[in-house]
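Troubleshooting log. The previous structure file for this entry was overwritten by mistake, so regenerating from the original sequence record. Sequence copied from the archived sheet and checked twice against the printout by T.R.
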Amino acid sequence: MQKLRIVYLGTPDFAVEPLRRLLEKQRACDSCGYEIVGVVTMPDKMINKRGNQLLMSPVKQYAVEQGLPLLQPESLKDEAFQDALRSWGADLQIVVAFRMLPESVWNMPRLGTFNLHASLLPQYRGAAPINWAIINGDKETGVTTFFLKHEIDTGDVIYRDVVTIEECDNAGTLHDKLMLQGGDTVLRTVEAIVKGEVAPIAQDDMSTGELRPAPKIFRDTCRINWQGSVDGIYDFVRGMSPYPAAWCELVNADDEAVALKVYAVSKEYVQHDKVAGAIVTDNKNYIKVAVDGGYIRLDEVQLAGKKRMPVADLLRGFSVEGAKCIK
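Regenerated output below.
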């Protein structure tokens, strides 16, 4: 039986795990029914001002280590790139954490192109599904494989696999859990396609309740609103940690505003009469911020121009006496 020819498209760490799982299975089993014939990833990035040092994407690093053919187009609409892609003769393409593809690319293989998305579609369509699932206080999320079509993240679903969101998870730990599950789900999807056993389901036919979007996150999106509840602010901070990181401003005793990134917090439920944003501290070990229903205790923070640190370290060189958090 002729093997299915697969082209893999991806860039960051999240995209390495599924590629690794596919390649390891291919090399361990001659009868797996598919082969990775090439990889497409982003061009190398300049990492210094002189422009003489380039950084490879994680997917490129892995592809080079494994001796896989590689393309790094500046533009996915470039005719030379599309000709090179076509020359690989792919039956199927897989996209994981890559750019939006033009139809001339995703519609090129005879079996189409499927994508791995880090949510249980149709929930959290968009650029930041991991962050928003935590910010919204969800207890579970997952990964979905689906065939691409014109509208972003709306194609017919192949498989969905659930991942639990623990109370202690942040965007970083959930990213890693979904990455590992994604490797399993992509491999399972390819094996089903090889066997001709896929039965895609239209997202419009799936009952999921009110749909929540996952739009791109900007700096203003990351600002903490201290008017919120204990649970809401706790979920917001961990949903932004470690990247892009929630932030606020402190106004010190001299009325100077200082930007502060907040990476980790803990919750304290208690009745109090303080205004939202008021600070309670011993100036040695802890900073607590008054919010609706209790306090948010700052655990790990970062001043502008400084490294990330425990709050006790911050208090050794920065006084918050008389300061308050501002919206």
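The chain is about 25% helix and 25% strand. Archived copy saved in two places this time.
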